[in-house]
Structures are given as C-alpha cells and as structure tokens.
Write a structure and sequence with these properties.
Layout lengths: L2 E4 L11 H5 L7 E4 L2 E4 H15 L3 H9 L2 H13 L7 E4 L28 E7 L8 H11 E12 L5 H22 L3 H13 L3 H10 L5 E6 L4 E5 L1
Parallel strand pairs: 4-5, 5-6
Antiparallel strand pairs: 1-7, 2-3, 6-8, 7-8
C-alpha cells in the first residue's frame, strides 16, 4: 500500500489552476446522479431516497460487497486519525452508525453548511459519503472552516483502480454483480446501480487531492487500498 504525498507546494507554484476546468461543472445548475444529469436542488433528495431505501440492509450489503473488508478499511482510517483523550472530532455522513457512548452527539445536518463554529474541531472524517454531496468543493471548504489550525482531515472513499487487468475485473464485478446483489438482498437494484456509477463519476485520487489542497489543506496525500478500490485521502 503506497502512500503518496501530493502537492505540498501547489499554491506556491501556482499548479492548481487546471483544477478549475475539471471542476467547473460543480458550479452549473445541473449535477450528476450516477450517469444521469439532474438539477442541483434534486440531487440531495434523490441521494436521501437511496439511503432510505437501503438502510435496513446497508451494513449487510457492505459486508457482502467487500467481503467484510470495509471494516478493515475503516480501522485503517481511524489509525491514521490517531485519536487522543479529549479530542473534539466530527464524523460526517455517519449513515447507520450507532453507539450509546455518552460522549457521542448525533446531529442531522448538511455537509455543505455545517452547524459548527470556525476552528472548533480537532479532526474531521467522512467515509463513503463525499461523492454523494452536490458540491464537493463546498463540503471541503466547510471541513477546512470547522477544523482547528493543525486539525486533521481524513476521507475514505471508493476510488479508481489503476492496474489494467484488475480494473477490467473490478468493472465487471461492479456493473454485473453489485446491482444484482442489491436486488437480491435489498430488493433495490437501482440504488446499487447508482453506487457503482457514482464511483466512476468521482474524481481520481490525484484530482481529488488537488481539490482538497485548493480548499486550503496542506500536506495532502493519499493511500490506495486494494489497488485503488478505495483510497484514504488526508490533509
């Protein structure tokens, strides 16, 4: 698992400008929902409908689709966060997260407009969630805003496979097996079709790292897991 350091001097060397072209669609009046183009105001409701539909079988499907590896990926994410006593941490897109720890506070909100003060958090994590937001750059800006100086940003996300032969196998599995498995287990083929399409529409690891740097983060790097099926991106 190679750890790649990305663009520590991007701003200084003015290497971020190509990002503007690749992300210009984010500022239009339409956005992607998988391979479909939908109006911006419709996407959040459509994503909400997806997760409402699959909620009861969400954890089971994650186990089946990843062979249980998603649990190890999340453990890897937490190990990189290196939590400490008294840490004030924000986990966004918690989904079906659960727990009765009294130190946990559950809040329903919008990743693009967080209800927390500037510089109030020591850490920010988001796992398998940021590709579902309407404006990725707004969610990143909000993450930067709420973090204290020196705070950590960590994102775990389904990403892009780089090895050609493995990519062909992964594409077959994604488009032929996952939607069929969703129909069989969750009774919902379309939501899992959206899942695999949304992964293909999400920026590559390097492009997403550039977006994080553009949001104001320093020392941005990423680590591919399982050949790029998922990646951990840090800032």
């Amino acid at each position: 698992m190679a750890l790649r350091s990305i663009y520590r001097g991007l701003k200084k060397n003015n290497l971020l400008s190509p990002l503007c072209n690749s992300c210009s669609h984010l500022h239009s009046h339409s956005t992607s929902f998988g391979y479909k183009e939908v109006r911006e105001e419709e996407k959040s409701q459509m994503v909400g409908n997806v997760f409402t539909s699959v909620a009861s079988s969400y954890d089971l499907m994650n186990d089946l689709m990843s062979g249980g590896l998603h649990r190890l990926w999340k453990e890897r994410l937490v190990s990189k966060l290196n939590p400490f006593p008294g840490m004030k941490h924000l986990d966004v897109a918690g989904g079906t997260g659960f727990g009765d720890d009294k130190s946990l506070v559950w809040v329903e909100g919008d990743a693009e407009a967080l209800k927390f003060e500037d510089g109030s958090m020591d850490g920010y994590t988001i796992a398998f969630g940021i590709r579902n937001v309407t404006h990725i750059e707004k969610a990143l800006a909000e993450a930067h805003r709420v973090l204290k100086r020196g705070g950590r940003f960590l994102c775990l996300e389904l990403s892009h496979v780089e090895l050609p032969i493995f990519k062909d196998l992964y594409d077959y599995y994604s488009f032929s097996v996952i939607p069929a498995l969703g129909e069989l287990v969750a009774g919902d083929r379309e939501s899992y079709q959206y899942l695999v399409e949304s992964v293909r529409r999400f920026p590559s690891q390097e492009k997403f790292a550039k977006m994080i740097a553009e949001a104001g983060f320093d020392k941005v790097e990423y680590e591919n897991l399982v050949g790029g099926v998922v990646a951990i991106i840090l800032g």
